[in-house]
From TrEMBL:
It comes from the Bacteria. The keyword Oxidoreductase applies. Keywords: Oxidoreductase. The keyword Protein transport does not apply. InterPro entries: 2-oxoacid_oxidoreductase, PFOR_II, Pyrv_Fd/Flavodoxin_OxRdtase_N, THDP-binding, Transketo_C/PFOR_II. This is 3-methyl-2-oxobutanoate dehydrogenase subunit VorB. Residues 14-236 form the Pyruvate flavodoxin/ferredoxin oxidoreductase pyrimidine binding domain. Residues 249-345 form the Pyruvate:ferredoxin oxidoreductase core domain.
């Protein structure tokens, strides 16, 4: 297939359309604005609908409405906007509705900076919304991977009837790279088969969506039991991870997304200096692939360096669980919208190794 030279945000939007997305609602926020802009032009060309909502809250509820009548729907934002969408994302999970959410993250906390950062790991994996639900979380490290994972996110959303989050940062959203786009799928009207409210589409035999369970505590408990079984199944089927040069590694980097991409260059530089180092890169942030860390030999690996564009590091807590505190973990990071360089990684790791040797 022919390669196209695309900006990350635009490539993600096109991948969504090719996956069958026919409704998008969103609200402007840097650094993801090219996604809704692209959708506003492309969706009408394929018979879809684009709405610039009056707020992030309105946008996610429009996605809920679209999904509830069987249309694959998507929204995108940055961390601040995702916070505002949290209630609606949880409502989608509670109603077992497929939806794809893209977070092109930036610095924080608060309004933070509009530059790229990885400050939303905990939000994405631990606190995407109230009520204890879970969502698959994918973290691409380049634009081709962003395309492929967005395309796959729609497949998962439809398969599991659950929201799926693609977490990338402003670097991936703003850069341009050659990509191969996936084939165009024919959108299907999604049919649901769960407990439904008589107030929504009362004449329909296809769409049955949970709109409220306030007076049905037993239903709500049974729903959570079924969802737990689904989440446990994800651990067996949906975990994606890259192990890079760890066969002989005495030091291991744990990193994801843009930081992991930068770390590959740093690893080559460190290897030239005689340091045996590799990397474990989670591609699926939830469920987290603990097994790759569990199999590390604590007698061989001297230290793990958690490398993130976040201070303090956020993924580090999952890495600690993975190694059961058997291997020392140190943090190397930048924050607040300061884009990490391979020199930052090399210098930070060399400094830590030198301090260790004193």
């Amino acid at each position: 297939m022919e390669k196209q030279f695309l900006k990350g945000n635009e490539a993600v939007a096109e991948a969504a359309i090719r996956a069958g997305c026919r409704f998008f609602a969103g609200y402007p926020i840097t650094p993801q604005n090219e996604i809704p802009e692209y959708m506003s032009k492309r969706l009408p060309q394929v018979g879809g609908a684009f709405v610039q909502a009056e707020s992030e809250v309105a946008a996610i509820n429009m996605v809920y409405g679209s999904a509830s009548v069987g249309t694959l729907a998507m929204t995108s934002s940055s961390g601040i906007g995702i916070s505002l969408k949290a209630e609606g994302i949880s409502n989608c999970a509670g109603a077992q509705l497929p939806a794809v959410i893209v977070n092109v993250s930036r610095g924080g906390p608060g309004l933070g900076a509009i530059q790229p950062a990885q400050a939303d790991y905990l939000q994405a994996t631990k606190a995407l919304g109230h009520g204890g639900f879970r969502a698959l979380v994918f973290a691409p490290a380049n634009i081709q991977e962003a395309v492929d994972l967005t395309y796959y996110a729609f497949e998962c959303a439809e398969k599991y009837h659950n929201p799926v989050l693609v977490l990338m940062d402003g670097c991936i959203g703003s850069m341009m790279e050659p990509v191969i786009l996936p084939e165009q799928k024919t959108p299907n009207r999604i049919k649901y088969a769960g407990w439904g409210s008589k107030y929504l589409n009362p004449a329909s035999t296809d769409t049955m969506v949970v709109t409220s369970c306030l007076n049905e505590p037993e239903y709500e408990e049974n729903l959570n039991i079924r969802l737990k079984e689904m989440y446990e199944g994800w651990k067996k089927t949906e975990g994606k991870i890259e192990e890079y040069m760890i066969e002989d590694a005495e030091y291991v980097i744990a990193s994801y997304g843009t930081s992991a991409r930068i770390c590959k260059t740093a690893i080559q530089e460190l290897r030239r200096k005689g340091i045996k180092i590799g990397m474990i890169r989670p591609i699926t942030l939830y469920p987290f692939c603990y097994s790759s860390f569990q199999k590390l030999d604590s007698k061989k690996v001297k230290c793990i360096f958690d490398v993130e564009m976040s201070i303090p590091a956020q993924m580090v807590d999952d890495v600690k669980i993975g190694v059961s505190n058997q291997i020392e973990i140190k943090e190397v990071g930048r924050s607040g919208g300061v884009i990490m360089t391979n020199e930052d990684v090399v210098d930070g790791i060399l400094k830590a190794i030198n301090e260790e040797g004193k």
